[in-house]
Write a sequence for this structure.
């Protein structure tokens, strides 16, 4: 009864939010459930219309990774409805809090969207199917056990009578959900496991305003923002006289750490922003530079006593007794996410004391909390409309800086919707960067070159310290800074991994596959060891992987798919790497050529992934392609340098993105072995840098221990 | 007051002549399919057609577009779905989708002039940036369009 009440209230609230005030903002994916009064919410995830249309609510965000569709597939699979009648919409964050977080986590990162919610969304689908069958059985007055639901229709076996889901949805919605439901064996899947077309694509190719920057509300104003170029600095003073006189300018908003101009178009706001005379208090970091970052990290490596992220056997003693010790130091720079859609947030303080926010967020709950903090309003007086993200890659999850700013700006103009959009320059210079890090590895090998002991020291800023301090492990170990070493699958009896957390002033954040630098270091170093031992790099790795280890399985799969060991056209060379992470196991072979002038071309990538199960094979392949191009930029030329406390690069001329001509051929081999759920948004970036750099070694004999390649001279002499 | 012909309709806008066309389209005409990515003519997210030519609207002063025929993604097709858009759906090209309207406008201009582009033609003309890495599928879809002028739209897109 109470559930029914709250459901009706929800429909009413949604109608008011979606229909009454919003004039142009497009909710192609958010209005379907509530359009038409007679739709029935069978449970929080599933709304069924009398004409059998099924609307599935999605709690996680969509940034191109396909979770929106994959989760709908899993629900529809268990519901056993007609996929052709399915649409999806984002669950309302406001309603989510009112209903005691009924949709579970809204956080979308760590390649977790599907794997961390598959169990409860499938159960929601199965539970709704049971309720629909019960409702039909009650109408026919027959035992439910005589009825079967399939493809949106319930049939009564003995009499052959049929009812469509839409005919019983209302009655089903009044029933109590079953205590326990049986989930389908994935081998019987009909909708999940298939490459159905993604639900979000048609709107995107039509240019519908589905993104955070896509909104347009009646009377809406636009804001452009400037933050202190030195991280951590604050606003001292602003002379806005010239700007305020400019055409279309409505207000200059001054806050502790930013200033924004609000105008009637974004260009006018941005032009006026450029005319502000701003004085910043840079704080104490105005002289930070690449050199100070290096010194900070090196000092970390030099520290005598460091907390240990892994200790197996006695690495020091084994190193002392090793036939040979091989050492290397590797490093990586800071990297910006550079989502193609800059950070954005539209906020509107409505006269009745309600705040509406539209934003591209990886975490609807975090956006609600940021909006509450910035507005001073309670959560039930706020709605965050989750829009499609023009790229996420970790930028729009933990940090909700853009929401806090958007809300603060709109607060200065009550009653008026204001859309904040960052300029590209602002976006590149105020990111939460992939940490710069330095790692020193020391390997003890026996007379045959077999690895018997490994001591790794990692100096790296902590992402958790910045974004989720409660998640830090004991002794302040940040798992994202030590991964691939702390959980290295190679059977080496003596291992020690030390972690020096050195944070500096540059904010760091989750950047696609956080900790992926370590995969580059480890897998290139293993290649060094294989070369020193005179062994084939695949054989060298296989000898250290236990039978049954899924790392071994994907390595064998990629070796087969890439025909490792066979001859290649002249000038093309192979490199290999295998890394697990984000729930999946990934191995890659890169085919690379290096011209006489030193230009590196990645010709072909073959990647094998075991994610346990595969919900949408085509989307998984697309994610592998995506990881390859996202990872290629930092291999070839991307980096963010620090000078005078600020980031040097400001736009795509100084922070280049690869073009279509640089896209290698990518062949993805999906080898799901079942029994576990792994991710796809990130795994394929892990082995990319080491596979490519190992291929460069094969081509040139030059060992790449730092990226990007533009700093290396690979010319043939 | 300036007069602009956009998607076959004449619009009157009261803007300064140096305002880039992109912002006239987005903030004054509410045509939000054309995107901002860099503002310096590098990424191509803002690509529109001016008299059939692909142009990066973020750096083009609106004054230079007067008297021309401007077409945006919203006006690409007369009947809702252009064959290029259909091919984009059939080949599941977009990921986040943010760059894709610009990408489609560039592809449309290329195919209008060169119905059977080679890989080299594509490399030369499709210089739009995609952060998500949809390039392989952009190429596949363009080649497919060259083979089959009227792709089938999948039934349940
Ligand atoms: S926004 Fe115009 S080229 Fe990037
Ligand atoms: S699809 Fe995301 S930027 Fe191209």
């Amino acid at each position: 009864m109470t559930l029914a009440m709250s459901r009706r209230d929800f429909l009413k609230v949604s109608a008011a939010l979606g229909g009454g005030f919003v004039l142009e903002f497009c909710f192609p994916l958010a209005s379907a459930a509530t359009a038409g009064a007679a739709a029935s919410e069978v449970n929080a995830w599933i709304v069924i219309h009398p004409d059998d249309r099924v609307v599935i609510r999605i709690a996680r965000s969509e940034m191109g990774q396909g979770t929106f569709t994959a989760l709908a597939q899993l629900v529809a699979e268990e519901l056993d409805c007609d996929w052709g009648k399915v649409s999806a919409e984002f669950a309302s964050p406001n309603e989510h809090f009112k209903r005691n977080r009924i949709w579970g986590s809204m956080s979308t990162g760590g390649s977790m969207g599907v794997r961390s919610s598959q169990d409860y969304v499938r159960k929601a689908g199965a539970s709704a199917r049971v309720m629909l069958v019960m409702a039909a059985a009650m109408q026919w007055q027959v035992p439910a056990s005589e009825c079967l639901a399939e493809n949106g229709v319930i049939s009564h076996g003995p009499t052959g009578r049929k009812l469509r889901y839409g005919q019983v949805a209302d009655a089903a919605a009044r029933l109590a959900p079953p205590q326990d439901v049986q989930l389908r064996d994935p081998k019987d899947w009909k909708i999940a496991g298939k490459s159905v077309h993604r639900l979000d694509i048609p709107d995107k190719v039509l240019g519908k305003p589905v993104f955070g920057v896509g909104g347009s509300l009646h009377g809406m104003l636009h804001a452009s923002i400037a933050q202190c170029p030195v991280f951590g600095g604050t606003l001292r003073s602003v002379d806005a006289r010239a700007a305020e006189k400019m055409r279309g300018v409505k207000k200059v908003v001054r806050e502790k750490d930013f200033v924004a101009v609000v105008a009637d178009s974004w260009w006018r706001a941005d032009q006026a922003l450029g005319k502000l005379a701003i004085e910043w208090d840079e704080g104490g970091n105005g002289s930070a530079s690449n050199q100070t970052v290096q010194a900070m990290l090196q000092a970390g490596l030099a520290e005598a006593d460091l907390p240990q992220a892994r200790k197996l056997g006695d690495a020091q003693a084994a190193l002392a007794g090793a036939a040979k010790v091989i050492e290397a130091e590797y490093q990586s720079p800071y990297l910006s996410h550079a989502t193609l859609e800059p950070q954005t947030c539209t906020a509107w303080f409505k006269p009745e004391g309600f705040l509406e926010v539209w934003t591209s967020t990886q975490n609807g709950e975090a956006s609600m909390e940021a909006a509450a903090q910035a507005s001073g309003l309670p959560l039930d007086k706020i709605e965050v409309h989750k829009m499609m993200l023009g790229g996420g890659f970790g930028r729009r999850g933990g940090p909700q800086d853009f929401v806090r700013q958007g809300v603060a700006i709109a607060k200065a103009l009550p009653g008026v919707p204001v859309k904040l959009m960052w300029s590209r320059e602002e976006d590149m210079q105020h990111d939460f960067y992939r940490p710069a890090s330095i790692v020193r590895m020391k390997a003890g090998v026996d007379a045959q070159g077999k690895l018997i002991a490994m001591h790794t020291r990692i100096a790296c800023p902590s992402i958790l310290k910045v974004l989720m301090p409660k998640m830090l492990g004991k002794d302040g170990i940040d798992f994202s800074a030590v991964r691939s070493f702390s959980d290295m699958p190679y059977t080496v009896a003596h291992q020690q991994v030390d972690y020096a957390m050195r944070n500096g002033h540059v904010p760091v954040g989750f950047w696609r596959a956080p900790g992926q630098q370590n995969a580059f270091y480890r897998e290139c170093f293993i290649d060094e060891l294989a070369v020193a031992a005179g062994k084939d790099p695949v054989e060298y790795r296989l000898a250290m992987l236990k039978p049954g280890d899924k790392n071994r399985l994907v390595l064998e799969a990629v070796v087969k798919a890439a025909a490792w060991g066979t001859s290649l056209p002249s000038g093309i060379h192979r490199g290999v790497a295998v890394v697990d992470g984000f729930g999946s196991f990934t191995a890659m072979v890169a085919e690379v050529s290096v011209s006489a002038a030193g230009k590196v071309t990645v010709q072909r990538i073959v990647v094998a992934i075991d994610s346990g199960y595969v919900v949408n094979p085509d989307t998984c392949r697309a994610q592998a392609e995506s990881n390859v191009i996202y990872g290629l930029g930092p291999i070839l030329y991307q980096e963010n340098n620090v000078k005078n406390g600020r980031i040097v690069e400001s736009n795509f001329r100084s922070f280049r993105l690869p073009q279509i001509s640089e896209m290698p051929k990518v062949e993805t081999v999906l080898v799901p072995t079942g029994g576990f759920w792994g991710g796809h948004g990130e795994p394929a970036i892990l082995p990319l840098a080491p596979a490519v750099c190992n291929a460069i070694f094969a081509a040139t004999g030059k060992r790449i221990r730092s990226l990007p390649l533009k700093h290396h001279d690979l010319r043939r002499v | 007051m300036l007069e602009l012909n956009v998607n076959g309709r004449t619009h009157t806008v009261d803007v300064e002549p140096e305002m880039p066309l992109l912002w006239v389209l987005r903030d004054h005409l509410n045509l939000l399919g054309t995107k901002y990515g860099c503002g310096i003519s590098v990424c191509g997210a803002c690509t529109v057609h001016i008299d059939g030519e692909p142009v990066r609207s973020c750096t083009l002063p609106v004054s230079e577009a007067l008297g021309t025929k401007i077409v945006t993604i919203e006006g690409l097709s007369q009947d809702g779905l252009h064959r290029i858009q259909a091919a984009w759906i059939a080949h599941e090209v977009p990921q986040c989708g943010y760059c894709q309207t610009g990408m489609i406008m560039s592809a449309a201009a290329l195919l209008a002039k060169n119905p059977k582009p080679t890989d080299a033609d594509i490399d030369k003309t499709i210089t739009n940036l995609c952060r998500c890495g949809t390039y392989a599928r952009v190429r596949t879809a363009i080649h497919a369009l060259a083979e089959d002028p009227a792709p089938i739209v999948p039934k349940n897109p």
Chain A touches chain B through 65 residues (CB under 8 Å). The first helix of chain A runs from residue 2 to 21.
